[in-house]
Design a protein that fits this description.
By secondary structure, the chain is an alpha/beta fold. The protein has helices at residues 17-31, 37-43, 48-58, 67-85, 97-106, 120-127, 150-157, 173-181, 210-217; strands at residues 4-7, 110-113, 135-136, 166-170, 185-189, 200-202. The protein has a six-stranded parallel beta sheet with strand order 3-2-1-4-5-6, with helices on both faces. Strand 4 (166-170), helix 8 and strand 5 (185-189) form a beta-alpha-beta unit. Helix 3 (48-58) crosses helix 4 (67-85). It is globular, with a radius of gyration of 17 Å. Bound molecules: 1,6-di-O-phosphono-beta-D-glucopyranose and magnesium ion (MG). Magnesium ion binds next to loops. This is Beta-phosphoglucomutase. Keywords: Carbohydrate metabolism, Isomerase, Magnesium, Metal-binding, Phosphoprotein. It holds the Pfam family Hydrolase.
Length: 218
């Protein structure tokens, strides 16, 4: 029986994944790494330093920079991302997600956040959604980022639920792998051909309702 829902943030609740992509694209250009759709998909859901390493690897530049230089570039990307976040309001919640979260809360489901982003508290606050969350995984306490299952394992633990009592919602391949590895039910939001490992697929957030999820689980 499902008792809890574990949410990714960027690309599931907020349209901020386009801001992350824009800021990474800008850095890739600066580093002389070709930006492709495939690279953009690989970066989705993946933490800050892991993302930078994927970009460098894609350009065959994984050995070109010291750790200090990498931290400098990652910080530069984050500063650009924070600039793009300015003016973020509840209007930037993806279609139907506020209603869905309110519905879960009204039906006494527990809700936690499993975002890789260190900026997630800031984003949730700007969207005025913190009040709905019973718990949050702090990504800075994790040993391994998505696609490792750790963040979704913790997402259930912080709610005092078993993995099989939880549903994880994701827009990224890395995130779906993490939910599946944690033995929870995975809901993929986006292109079903890309998110083909998800247990349940929706092409966009407006289809994500309790009724549709219950229907898909039968
Ligand atoms: P930050 P999610 C992820 O958030 C984003 O999808 C990913 O693009 C970003 O690089 C990562 O957070 C780290 O974010 O640099 O802000 O700490 O999708 O797991 O909510
Ligand atoms: Mg995401």
């Amino acid at each position: 029986q499902i008792k809890g829902f574990i949410f990714d943030l960027d690309g599931v609740i907020a349209n901020t994944s386009v801001f992350h992509a824009k800021a990474w694209h800008q850095l890739a250009d600066k580093l002389g790494v070709t930006w492709t759709e495939d690279l953009a998909n690989q970066l989705k859901g993946v933490g800050r330093m892991d993302s930078l390493n994927l970009i460098l690897k894609s350009g065959g530049k994984e050995n070109d920079y010291t750790e200090d230089e990498k931290v400098k570039y990652a910080t530069e990307k984050n500063d650009n991302y924070l600039g793009l976040l300015k003016g973020l309001t509840d209007k930037d919640i993806l279609p139907g997600m506020k209603e869905f979260i309110e519905d879960l809360s009204a039906n006494n489901y527990l809700i936690s956040l499993a975002s890789s982003s260190k900026n997630s508290p800031k984003v949730l606050e700007a969207l005025d959604l913190e009040k709905y969350f019973d718990a949050r995984v702090d990504p800075s306490t994790l040993k391994n980022g998505k696609p490792d299952p750790e963040i979704y394992v913790r997402g259930a633990e912080v709610l005092n639920l078993k993995p099989e009592e939880c549903i994880g919602l994701e827009d990224a391949v890395s995130g779906i792998k993490s939910v599946n590895g944690a033995h929870e039910t995975s809901v993929g939001i986006g292109d079903p051909e890309i998110l083909n490992e998800a247990d349940i697929n929706f092409t966009d957030t407006s289809q994500v309702t309790l009724a549709n999820i219950k229907k898909a689980m039968n």
